[in-house]
Design goal:
By secondary structure, the chain is of the alpha/beta class. It has two domains: 236 residues, P-loop containing nucleotide triphosphate hydrolases (Rossmann fold, 3-Layer(aba) Sandwich), CATH 3.40.50.300; 238 residues, Rossmann fold (3-Layer(aba) Sandwich), CATH 3.40.50. Helix content is 33%, strand content 24%. It contains 17 helices and 20 strands. A six-stranded mixed sheet has the order 6-7-8-3-9-10, with helices on both faces. The mean pLDDT is 89.
């Protein structure tokens, strides 16, 4: 296939640090090319070079459709058909779907908004990729998956020939991921080149024609996806071997921490009954709409069940708020790390102490510096948070370290039950491994853990017992090691 974009000898230096070192890459027309590597490996910098945001060091060459482009600017890259869909999607939440799709193409004569043209452009883009979107909906009112579609439609409206998707599945459920992967293949069939950046190796191998692996700003190689395995790819990305085994285990003969009986909430879940013991890791999985997160929100007191009973340590309790849950020893790590887990403009220290700050004050209501610093330092040490200066804003950390900060925030409350909703979403393979080690260590210390995830390997290899939800009801109990990963996957997708 002919090349659409070619990079030759691309380097980029920031403050003496080599973000990219002599990287050469060819993107062929109509291929799905996956770009893999840990956080900080140079993927984002390379994307910004392709889109004209960053200029490479002298000597680097960028060729698009056979013509060398120097310098490549964002305006020129857009004109040549390069579109980037960043992780935050860069949409305007207070504008409609149509306005977001046709942004930049909205003016008619005399610089007035041509509303008819806006809706024509948007309708054509939606029709091109064959999705269903209400053009009049405000982006703020639609789901994350629908916002992804809006971003793709915007790229189509701009006559994209190369679409770069930066972590497009990080906030999607497995069902939504499947739909996006199907759409990506449809774009490929139309001759559009796709660069797909993802930490999820199963997605990479499912959709890619070729895979380029980056490490420390260096291209390790470009490989035929058919010749790769997730284990080989993980080793290339990290330089480390990852090998998880699932061993059949009996349930621990320990105290029952939580017992749920016939719990129901109209429209979300019904007749839920289960228990979890001290030191047990209970996996909870299911497709979109199965009720997993909704159940977790009720256990944490954020929503109230309409019927049923919750017992903690053998005593019935009422969860009227999340404060009640915290006082009863329950902590909940949300799947929305950036929106609900952290205060991004606050410091690392402030985020770690957020849930217990009222316990760190003296009689005068002033924070005790000694207790505050001890809490922060203990958390950083115990969870191996690479924080640098704890006074730095938490948004400066990598995804994996941000997740450790969220864990630290909740562990400071000394929970007896820890609910982890998609604990590794948006973090790379090395950071995932670190989080799994922390989870195992916490369970060994006696904390009961409910781990919610739609990543079947994650649930299978890192849970002692698994509950499958479907349509708001529990649909089966599985013990990894006594069943296969494939059996669990079939149960979820049945």
């Amino acid at each position: 296939m002919p090349a659409f974009l070619q990079l030759d000898g691309i380097s980029k230096i920031f403050g003496g640090v080599h973000a990219l070192s002599d990287v050469s890459l060819t993107l062929e027309e109509g291929e799905v090319h996956c770009l893999c590597g840990q956080n900080g490996c140079g993927k984002s910098t390379l994307i910004k070079v392709m889109s004209g945001v960053h200029q490479p060091e002298p000597g680097g060459r960028i060729t698009i459709s056979g013509n060398e482009v120097s310098p490549l600017t964002p305006v020129e890259s857009t004109r040549l058909g390069v579109q980037v869909i960043y992780q935050d999607l860069s949409l305007f939440p207070n504008l409609t779907v149509a306005e977001n799709i046709a942004i930049g193409q909205h003016t008619g004569r005399f610089k007035r908004v041509n509303w008819k043209k806006i809706y024509e452009i948007a309708a054509e883009a939606v029709a091109r990729i064959g999705v269903s979107l209400d053009l009049n909906d405000k982006v703020a009112d639609i789901s994350i998956a629908q916002r992804q579609l809006v971003a793709i439609c915007r790229a189509m409206a701009a006559n994209a020939r190369l679409v770069i998707m930066d972590e497009p599945t990080s906030s999607l459920t497995r069902h939504e991921v499947d739909a996006l992967l199907k759409l990506t293949l449809q774009l490929k069939q139309r001759g559009i080149t796709i660069v797909f950046v993802s930490h999820r190796l199963d997605e990479v191998l499912e959709i890619a024609d070729r895979v380029t692996v980056m490490r420390d700003g260096v291209k390790l190689g470009t490989f035929d996806a058919r010749e790769m395995s997730d284990r080989k790819l993980a080793t290339l990305m990290t330089g480390k071997e990852f090998h998880y085994e699932s061993v059949a285990k009996d349930r621990p003969q320990t105290e029952t921490v939580l017992e749920v009986s016939n719990l129901s909430r109209k429209g979300e879940y019904r007749d839920i009954s289960f228990d979890i013991r001290r030191g047990e890791i209970l996996g909870l999985t299911g497709l979109l709409g199965s009720g997993r997160t909704e159940l977790a929100l009720s256990l944490f007191g954020l929503t109230r069940p309409h019927q049923g009973e919750i017992k903690l340590h053998g005593h019935a309790v009422q969860m009227r708020s999340n404060r009640d849950a915290i006082e009863h020893g329950i902590a909940y790590l949300s799947e929305d790390r950036l929106g609900l887990g952290l205060v991004l403009e606050q410091s690392i220290s402030a985020n770690i102490t957020l849930s217990v700050v009222e316990k760190l004050v003296n009689k005068a209501g002033l924070i005790r510096d000694d207790l505050y610093e001890q809490t922060v330092n203990d958390a950083i040490a115990s969870l191996s948070i690479k924080a640098g200066n704890p006074d730095n804003k938490v948004k400066t950390l990598s995804g994996g370290n941000q997740q450790r900060v969220v864990l630290a925030k909740w562990l400071a409350t000394q929970p007896k039950l820890l609910i982890l909703d998609s604990p590794t979403v948006g973090v790379d393979i090395h950071a995932k491994d670190g989080i799994y080690a922390i989870v195992r260590k916490l369970a060994a210390s006696g904390i009961a853990i409910i781990m919610i995830s739609d990543e079947i390997p994650e649930i299978y290899y890192h849970s002692d017992r698994v509950l499958v939800m479907r349509g708001g009801r529990l649909n089966g109990e599985y013990f990894p090691g006594r069943c296969s990963e494939e059996e669990l996957k079939e149960a979820v997708n049945a």
